[in-house]
Amino acid sequence: MTPSKNLLAILTELTADAQQIDQAQLEQVQELILKAKRVFIAGAGRSGFAARAFSNRLMHLGFTVYFVGEPTTPSIRENDLIIIGSGSGRTEGLVNMAKKAKSEKAQLATITIHPKNPIGTMADALIQIPGISTGDKATEKAPSIQPNGSSFEQLSWVVYDSMIVDLKKKMKQEQTDMDYRHANLE
Fold it and tell me: Residue ranges of the SIS domain (predicted)?
């Protein structure tokens, strides 16, 4: 058997990038989740796929959670939280969602490469992930063998899962509790 060089290079990159993520930032977002009446999750493109998976896991933990854009998503209000996954932090539709959420006095958290871009500057809490988003100019980050944005999307998925592990412990949930909430109309 010959191991995949590309796969090993991607895992090496993700491991190096994961070491740059601040646990305190994860804990701040987790506290907002625990205090929120309802949690709204948003993301576009491939980042949206990772965010959608996070909303699914939050539902498994028993949170009232909505993925923005679904027909059953209600309006956001005070005491709610929106978490936006956006590598660039400037995707127009997501910026507009952040502005609307803040105008309704909801809390805002984001997972982003660029905390100084519009979504990050509005956020009550954020998790900064190293990476290069589509349209970025050259940075100090080592070049990736992957297309721009891929490492952000992959690492955001793992960050979301890491927070689920912490939230599961904080909520004293067992796997059987999560399994009970898993879809059964499959």
Answer: 29-169
